[in-house]
Amino acid sequence: MIDHRRLGRELDLFDSDPLIGAGLPFWLPAGAAARHEVESYLYDLERRNGYQHVYSPALGKRQMYEISGHLANFADDMFPPMAVGEDELMLRPSMCPHHALIFKARQRSYRDLPLRVAELGQMYRQERSGVLGGLSRVRSIALNDSHIFCPVEQAAGEVAGVLRLMRESHAALGLRPASYQLSLRGPGKKYGGRDADWLRSEALLRGALDAQEISYDEVAGEAAFYGPKIDVQVVDAAGREWTIATVQIDHHQPERFDLSYVDASGAKARPVMVHRSLAGSMERLFGLLIEEHGGAFPVWYAPVQVAVLPLASLPAPFAADALAAGLRVSVHHEGSLGARIRANTKVPYVAVIGEREAAAGLVSLRLRDGRRLEPMPGAAAIALISEVAAARRPGQLLPSP
Ligand SMILES: [Zn+2]
């Protein structure tokens, strides 16, 4: 595996500038195109599974983080507050408090639950400058996040659903988890909440892993300050281990924010909060995906899906047709055929249009793995690429027979 920092620059996926600052990379058009596709996929996957998406601001008042417990337990990872008039505003280090207050913004009934609030949101963490590099560790983070509010009796079912969605999305992305980890409390760290709630949540997470026959390691000291969690671990090209997905049970923040719903008997009841991310931050995810695929992404989120190489004097409508059909296309007029093919080795399909093809409305597709297909009508080539993209099977370049 090659370090994603080198490949990311070579393939024009992302870069950084000392004037913007360490740990603040920017996404170039090719990287942004791939990320947009992955974000859209996650959005649809969540929507089809009953999640409701929101937008919330990346800033909040200091008092909110006092109530949530972040300032008491997590201040070292947060940027210092900014004085604005009477208030002190802080860049958020997580979306939990905003989503808790979105839950609280309306009267909630047991019939509304589970309420699955989701957001691909921006957050900020003050990582030390010595550990910053590429996309793995950054200070500006776009997280695939959700908070599920439900009665404690529904929490096991919600965790099971999250584990299933993790496995589905990791398979589509071509991401290989190294291990599952049950992250528990440990000595020398600060935690909020009641002991009985911690024990119940730990038992619930164990039960969810066992029910899906997922093997896991128990790791002390890796819990969140508000509750235990299941973490999905991956290993990068340098052999470092990262958490890419997580599901956590939290009794603490619902209590701190005094969240409630009206239960079936008409009484006020306290929901539990299930924090979860299917694929982590877009930064860390793409750092891993670039290395995992060596920059040759699966067809569905490849920045360019088909590179068109016109060789004929006749103009061919293929590139415009492919673009209109929703494919991501680049056109290369300069250089020998060989040089143009070598410049596009990471692109899943190269469409060669010679004199004969142009005259007959055909294209010759060359696949990234070296296979060459017989010349086919442009519309058939577009249909083939679209079908492979829609199937989201990493490694596959032809439709399933
Ligand atoms: Zn959270």
From TrEMBL:
Pfam family, one: tRNA-synt_2b
Keyword Glycoprotein in record: no
Segments forming domain Aminoacyl-transfer RNA synthetases class-II family profile: 29-298
MF term (GO), any: ligase activity
Keywords: Aminoacyl-tRNA synthetase, ATP-binding, Cytoplasm, Ligase, Metal-binding, Nucleotide-binding, Protein biosynthesis, Zinc
CDD domains, alphabetized: ThrRS_core
Enzyme Commission code(s) on record: 6.1.1.3
PROSITE patterns: AA_TRNA_LIGASE_II (PS50862)
InterPro entries reported in the protein's UniProt record: aa-tRNA-synt_IIb, aa-tRNA-synth_II, aa-tRNA-synth_II/BPL/LPL, Anticodon-bd, Anticodon-bd_dom_sf, Thr-tRNA-ligase_IIa, ThrRS_core
Enzyme class: ligase
Catalytic activity: tRNA(Thr) + L-threonine + ATP = L-threonyl-tRNA(Thr) + AMP + diphosphate + H(+)
Coiled coil: none
Protein family (similarity comment): Belongs to the class-II aminoacyl-tRNA synthetase family.
PANTHER family reported in the protein's UniProt record: THREONINE--TRNA LIGASE 1, THREONINE-TRNA LIGASE
Protein name: Threonine--tRNA ligase
Organism: Actinoplanes palleronii
Lineage of origin: Bacteria, Bacillati, Actinomycetota, Actinomycetes, Micromonosporales
